[in-house]
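ok here's the first one, seq then struct tokens
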Amino acid sequence: MSWIAIIVLGVGTYALRFAGPVLRSRITVSPAVGRYLTLAAIALLAALIGTAALLNGTEFVGIARPAGVAVGAVLAWRKLPFVVVVVAAALTAALLRLAGIQ
């Protein structure tokens, strides 16, 4: 049963990725709909980041992880190199946990 599900999901994913370039020239949307689609993608990404940064399952993760994410966000906003952003965010969370702040 699990192999069938994996194959179906793989085929579905490939079909969706293939449909984008094929249907792009055939389907037109108004500028307002295009803007809303862009905003919806941003909102979805923000919700995923927020959930991953603040929760582990259904429980709050504490202060260390959100603080690391906040440091990473500020450094990314300041356009520092990706490696610096990731290392600084991880270091922030690790130092807070080492200090006993969960």
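and now the second one, same deal
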Amino acid sequence: MAEEREELTWELFGTASRELARQVADDGFAPDLVLSIARGGLFVAGALGYALDVKNLHVMNVEFYTGVDERLDLPVMLPPVPNAVDLTGSTVLVADDVADTGATLRLVRDFCADHVAEVRCAVVYEKPRSAVRCEYVWRRTERWINFPWSSEPPVVRRQGQVMEA
């Protein structure tokens, strides 16, 4: 029998992102900018940006996962890395799809911490093993998650990228 997985549909993602935004708003946190962790966090950041009326969105591209439950030893920031000066003094909401091990979120949060007024994290899913406890979480799970944006294989395979056939 195959391992049970969380299934997030596009429709359910709409619900999740609105409920996540409601948590942020109800908490009184008013971010100056939303910092997305690409790639999965792009969808979350865009939805939160609209729901919280924050137009200032930034992106950090961090590579960690190479397959289903397969990852590099440590997460790696890929260029272009945001200029810390651009974040200085801001109130930042870091957005990602999942806090699995928490290593990626910790890398991004720590990158921001010395430069921003305040940083908080929002994720759709958080796993119990995550090294980072996010302030805003839609659901907690121990299962692997099928996200609507990454459940299907790529249409093309690009050379020079970390992809298994």
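notes on #2: Residues 155 and 165 are 12 Å apart (CA to CA). Residues 10-26 form the longest helix (17 residues).
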